[in-house]
Structure of TauD/TfdA-like domain-containing protein:
Amino acid sequence: MAPSVAEIVPSAAELGDIAKQKLNRAFDVAQHTSYPYTKYLPVYDEETKFPPTEPFDFVDRGLSADKAKPHLLGLHDPNVKISKLTPRIGTEVTGLQLSELSDVQKNELALLIAERGVVVFRGQNFKDIGVERQKEFGQYFGRLHVHPVGAHVEGALEFHNIYLGPDNLYRLQFKSDSLTTIGYHSDVSYEHQPPGITLLTLLAVPETGGDTAWVSQVAAYERLSEPIKKLLEGLRAEHSGFPQAENARRHGKFVRREPVKSEHPIVRVHPVTGEKALFVNPGFTKRIIGLKREESDAILQLLYQHISHSQDLQVRVKWDDQTVALWDNRVTAHTAISDYDVRQEAEGLRHGFRITTLGESPVGVEGLGTVW
Ligand SMILES: O=C(O)CCC(=O)C(=O)O
Ligand SMILES: [Fe+2]
């Protein structure tokens, strides 16, 4: 008989004791001797500390793009197919290699990502071009984020590791504690200058399951009634990195940068498209500044439900190991869908990495800014 989750998954306290040694040896590399991407398996640098981020200038590549995107959309190549995945969010591209795009095409891509929220490239060689070229590709769009607590790729702290296999005790514990693994968020939105474009690619995928879903925060904002829009446009919300860091410490993990909080405008204006987007998410937003606790809780719950339940504002993408997704964290939220059983070998390993570029300090309606 298969062992129960409780037998396999240690308690939080036990997990704290074993997590360090367990996680530090790259989640049992020995299990993956025939795996071609061992170099990308998760590791933890436990020495490199980072100081608090200083303000820096950011210029969005999309600002340099021709609005019609002729170098990306006007290609007369019958092999290139670019199609909308849903009316409001998501575009799929086949027949074009990200690794071969010119700078002019990358500028147009930045604009396309901003407009469509997420752009999914199929049939990519990106995972095989090597860490240096992968990093360079990300750096074109902005300064790379180093995750304060996450596992990374050996020699590349900027590559946030995504790993769900039978030896990821941390995630198994989470799965056993919750009714669902769905958790919409905008990546590390607590940062003072949170991410603009994020790139995610998977190196190993389960046969089925493990999709990712994105929601358009532009469409989510547009659906709201005028009085609610007006109310939200004048408000900021606190986003906090403290729970993530405290949770990591509790599990014996190294925190490489001390956590921060930011008070971001709730309605954010995209610097290139000028579109307004809701900028709150259940992952990191804690309270609305200036409201009473119950008022803040009620409004945030309303918005979280709206974001999480509105499948008519969402796109769900199925992965294969040649897919790369790029999204704009300023105008979308996303969630992993961990619907398969990682303890069953047949259902497989899910492994990849995320390259996250940082953007501007959010700007709201009528110039309402972020408080650091
Ligand atoms: O694994 C996924 O599908 C998404 C994980 C995630 O939230 C991220 O990479 O930012
Ligand atoms: Fe994420």
About this structure: The first strand starts at residue 42 and ends at 43.
